[in-house]
Amino acid sequence: MVIVIGIDPGVALTGFGLLREAPDGRLEALAHGVIETPKAQPLARRLQLLQQQLQALITTWQPQEAAVEEVFFATNAKTALSVGQARGVVLLTLFNAGIAIHEYTPLQVKQAIAGYGQADKRQMQTMIKALLGLVEPPRPDDAADALAVALTHLHSRRWAQLGA
User: DSSP of 117-157, one letter per residue?
Assistant: First the structure.
């Protein structure tokens, strides 16, 4: 059995989703949600809180692999910079925990989950709900994105095993 943590990095909100793949290939959603940092705090403190809360998730769930969404911004340099800083904290925390890290672009995630690179948030949430057998679509969007990136990794993993 393998547990994968999916991460959608951000300073204000970092989405997380944990999936378990059983030896028979069944997938189980273990947990999902967001790590939220208070806007009133200085950036360094917010990044520290992100690291501490991500470390707590790792300690609780003991994932063996991680899937992190690569982020591309073309319009807002300030947002891109802060997300990049959060991504750095996420990657370092995962690396220090000895977790294998895999990265996926938003296009790869949309194609893997919805079969269409231009899928919108609603389409993605509907597919995640169906693929994981959830009662409700995952919310908020950041948590849904994190589940989607974890699911993308598990699909990619299966394809790689078939090709081996």
Answer: TT--HHHHHHHHHHHHT-SS--SSHHHHHHHHHHHHHHHHH
Tokens of 90: 């996420």
What the block records as the tokens of 3 is 């547990």
Q: In the annotation, is 142 catalytic? A: yes
Q: Which of 21, 65, 142, 145 is an active site residue? A: 142
Residue 70 among the catalytic residues = no
What residues does each domain of the chain span?
2-163
Each residue's pLDDT tens digit, 23-80:
888 899 999 999 999 999 999 999 999 999 999 999 999 999 999 999 766 567 777 7
CATH topology of domain 2-163: Nucleotidyltransferase; domain 5 (3.30.420)
